[in-house]
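FAQ: What does the model actually see?

It sees only this:
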Amino acid sequence: MLGKLRPLEDGRCELRFERGLAHAQEKVWRAITDPAQLRAWFVEILDYDRCRLDFAEGTELTFVPKPEHDLPTGQGRTTRIDPPRLLEYTWDAEVLRWELEADGPDACRLIFTNIVADRELAIAVASGWHAGLDQLAAFLDGRPVEQVDLAGLQAEYQDVLG
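And it is asked to produce this:
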């Protein structure tokens, strides 16, 4: 299911994804908060040995890219946390919000929201977040991640959101 884009009153844009996951809320919570599990599915350009991803209210976060990517280190802060239901943090100027709603004992619904500066950036990052959420589902299921046609997915997002 494709993400949805909504302009915000302050000029930024909200990119929102919803996924039903056949896993308990607590298991998904660990996958989105434990750095050891994040390295298996979250942003592949990060050097998890050098990142600081200790999620607690108000903590400073550091997103260090792998040297071969020649990108600047990102900074953030945990702005809201309510285990195992809500995690919100900043990554530079962006906001990432993870909401988990139990759907019985062995399933939950994930709502991921990324707030970015503008529509163009939202469209540019949509395919990456889409693929990342697919990787999360594969990780939780214990199955290999299928190769994603990112260019095709990006074109689809451009058509739908552009």
